Amino acid sequence: MILIATQNFPPDRGGIENLMGGLADNLAAAGVPVEVYADRVRGEGVLLPRDYRVHRFGGARPWRRRRKARAIRAAVQSGGVTGIFADSWKSSELIAGLGVPVVVLAHGMEFPHKPSGGKRERIRKALASTRAVIANSSYTASLVQPYVGAGVPLTIINPPIDPQPEPEPQQVAALRPLVAGRGPVLMTLARLEPRKGVDAVIAALAEIRKEYPNLLYIIAGGGDDRARLEKLAVEQGVADCVHFAGMVDDGQKAALFSLADLFVMPARREGDSVEGFGIVYREAGWYGVPALAGREGGAADAVIDGQTGLLCDADSQADVTAHILRLLSDEAARRRMGENAAELARNSGQWRASVQRFLQALG
Question: Are residues 141 and 258 in the same domain?
Answer without folding.
Answer: no
